[in-house]
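Before any further analysis, backbone shapes were mapped to integers, which produced the following:

***
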Amino acid sequence: MKRVTAAGTLSLAALTVFAGPLAQADSLTAWYLGGGGGQARSSIDDVRITNGLLAGGFTSVSITDYDRPTGYKLFGGYQINKYIAVEGGYFDLGQSGFVATTVPVGTLSGTIKVKGLNLDLVGTLPITDKFSAFARVGVNRAEAEDTFTGTGRVRALNSNPSKTDTNYKYGVGLRYAMTDALGVRVEAERYRIDDAVGNKGDIDLVSVGLDYRFGRKVQAPLPSVTRPEPVAAAAPTVAPAPVAAAPAPQPAAAAMPPPPPPRKVTFSADALFDFDKATLKPAGKQALDKFATDLRGTTFDVITVTGHTDRIGSREYNQKLSTRRADAVKNYLVDPSGIPVAKIVSRGADKSSPVTKPGDCKGGNATKALIACLQPDRRVEVEVTATKR
């Protein structure tokens, strides 16, 4: 039973619906798992079957094909970066078959089951922050199991041949990210297969599936850019407490002076952390050491640490990043600087309170100019409330 090339590739016309500039969105860089199912499509070589039966002495042959079985696949992969992944899995292309009716009276029935393993290299092209197109190319190791049954005057010489061989495969698809981790994909794949009676052909699988990604979100890779060195905000010296006016000679007690206003110190996030990281750099630790030194001999009610990001990237991711950075500063001030943990709180404000104005920085893509313009927005603010010497 021969498999020949059959039309079944997925039309890429749908891509025009989402045409536009490439999104500079974030992507998940991690392991993922998924599965899908759909219709497998093959062509059965009716001409070869008919000629074989006629050569065997039959005068008439009619054939009914069953060449649209249900197939499925399970897969796992690793997203190396925003554009490249390696994926492997198991596939089952279902069971196709035919029934040939002959004169003199008899029938020849044949089926083929195809299943195996594959390993692919997958390339992804982002279209929007939710949609992406992808293409794959790889190899498959497939087992083809044939079964032939004859009735009446028809006899099958080899009723259960089978063969396992390695061939190529390729495919295209679209993916929609329902959440940061969960996505739905539609794809069409072509598997080159050797059947068990010496023929080569193609079986197509058009499927719908889901994938789930495990890992943390990282900002999409940018072209090599030499970033300007940000200057860490110098920790200001503690302002002297105001001196209370001399009491009047009357015996009444002098009024207590009001507490001084809160003191706020702003540190450049680029000076404290590497890009897209929440681990303090040596220079950042030195700046925080100086700040802690200036607080010695000062009493205070509370220290509030607030992390801020720029507007590049999603709100959800920026919220997580700003919170992790605020926590890193808090933890360092507690240990080794020795500030009591009960007197310091931290929070992330994502990109909700920018320093730059809406019209200051133009553009929506993460260009070198935009990153430099938005530098003031990436910061960590430390506010000390009710200080006094």
